[in-house]
Amino acid sequence: MVRAVDRVYARLRADILDGVHPPGARIGEAELAEATGSSRTPVREALRRLEVEGLVEVLPHRGARVPDWTPEDLEEIYDLRMLLEGAAARRAAARVTDADADRMDELCALMEAAVEPGAGQDLDRVAELNAEFHDIVRSAAASGRLVSMLNAVVQLPLVMRTFHRYSPADLARSSAHHRELAAALRARDGTWAESVMRAHVLAAKAVLLRAARTPGDQNDQDDHTETRTG
């Protein structure tokens, strides 16, 4: 049986990622308890879990809200993510299996097909495949501490709809990084894998900072619909 806190957490997390609660939105405990048919106790616990993930801010005596990230926030978060994901890639190179490497190659091909311009382009699908790709790296790293720290900084791209902010050149660069990272891991070369992963995260950081500093970004119109990471 699903615990009340798990049900509230899953509902609220999905609503944040789907844009039901956009950046800056306040989340009332009483309203959330009523919407989920639960008491305030599981609501508070769910909010604490989401705060650890960086998806909400719990403000003393003011309730909770979805963070509204500044360019400075984005820069700090992506610098941390670069260090942590780079370390994960280095560890993964010594532990990744042939089956993992094969799946990463498959994911590269699927992402490349999904970013092709035209009616068949599906950036939401790219984001889902990208999430699986990075999950393989984190899993192969075999470090609970590292994954726990990463969980606090990898949620931002989910909310920011990263791939919808990419230009064709950005998408091509991301695909090339994925291919090279898969090759580095298959070669069991930790230094190479870490270097590529760092470049990959820094490139994503540049995209988000460019969008954040450009008023009236066309992609902002998409911010409140569903996707997954970048």
Commentary on this structure:
The two termini are 33 Å apart. With 230 residues, the chain is mostly helical. The chain has helices at 4-17, 29-36, 40-52, 71-93, 98-114, 123-141, 144-151, 156-160, 168-186, 190-212, and strands at residues 26-27, 57-59, 63-65. It is 65% helix and 3% strand. Helix 5 runs antiparallel to helix 9 and helix 9 (168-186) packs antiparallel against helix 10 (190-212). The protein is globular, with a radius of gyration of 18 Å. It folds into two domains: 4-65, Winged helix-like DNA-binding domain superfamily/Winged helix DNA-binding domain (Arc Repressor Mutant, subunit A), CATH 1.10.10; 71-222, GntR ligand-binding domain-like (Four Helix Bundle (Hemerythrin (Met), subunit A)), CATH 1.20.120.530. The protein has a three-stranded antiparallel β-sheet with strand order 1-3-2.
Structure characteristics:
three-stranded antiparallel sheet, 3 strands, mainly alpha, Arc Repressor Mutant, subunit A, Four Helix Bundle (Hemerythrin (Met), subunit A), 230 residues, single chain, disordered C terminus
